[in-house]
Amino acid sequence: MPAKGKHRRPKSLSISRGFAVAGTGGAALALPLMGAAGAQAAGAPAVATTTAVTAVAPVVAPQVPVSLQAAAAAPGVYTVVPGDCLSVIAAERHLPGGWEQLYADNREAVGSDPSLIHPGLKLNLGGAGDSAAAEPAPARKTAAKPASKPATKPVSKPAPQQAAKAAPAQQAAPEAPAAQPQSASSFVAPVSGGISTQYKVAGSMWSSGYHTGVDFIASSGTTVKAVGAGTVVSAGWAGAYGNEVIIRHADGNYSQYGHLSQLSVTAGQSVTAGQSIGLSGSTGNSTGPHLHFEIRTGPSYGSDIDPIAYLRSKGVSL
Fold this sequence. Notes:
The protein is of the alpha+beta class. Among the domains are: 66-143 and 153-160, Roll (Membrane-bound Lytic Murein Transglycosylase D, Chain A); 187-313, Glucose Permease (Domain IIA) (Distorted Sandwich), CATH 2.70.70.10. The protein contains 9 helices and 14 strands. The strands form 3 sheets. Strands 5, 6, 7, 8, 9, 10, 11, 12, 13 and 14 form a 10-stranded antiparallel β-sheet that branches. Helix 3 crosses helix 4 (98-105). The protein is rod-shaped. Residues 12-57, 66-74, 128-139, 141-148, 150-156, 163-170 and 176-184 have low confidence and may be disordered.
């Protein structure tokens, strides 16, 4: 007679487990080994018969250089890395017009010297942006080396063609200083000698009846200087005055230099105060070497004014 009370479930056989250990660096596989009774036990968890997944080392995606990431984000922009120069960038990215066009498109960012580009500088690749993004330039060895090691090539050294064409910009002559405004003190005496004949001295030897200028003492061959800046109106033979130079000054007056033995300026030439315009002599109607000097209100004879008073008004000490 069956015993009364609750039915008891027979105990299942104990589960023996074994572990298969992977080789060095591999993950352990836990493979449960179950007895026959355990395999037939009702209600056994489904996970008991599942094989554990083998753990593997995580796959690390290759690191993309920052410059290429920037190029992918902005197809028409390239970020300079150590070792770059414009000719290399243009060649690797097949830019139409070469480095010259690349420099022209980025002149404001690069500056006057195309050989001086620095890491981090962003260059506009112009119309070649789409194709450049499709074919990224290969990473150069200098970018992968530690910062403590020197680069394998000079960073700022341009290609031979680049250096030849960039030379004119680097060797451009400095601009000439702006001309200073003319002042009273910018006038000088025409020669260093004293005065032998004063202005308006009467005499029959002069056709006007008086001396229309002043005569400065000057031996033959003495340098004659322009008394102030101006433009040469005439330079050549002038009859009684012999070899003559006439200069128009900024205030509208004219200075005249007569009896010269040699001329060193020509009509239309600009001169500065103190510039040599010729050598003194005794050409024309002259009794000996000296400089005849006049100040006129016009270029022609008969418009003379007191030359000594004029030079003193300009700050010349006579």
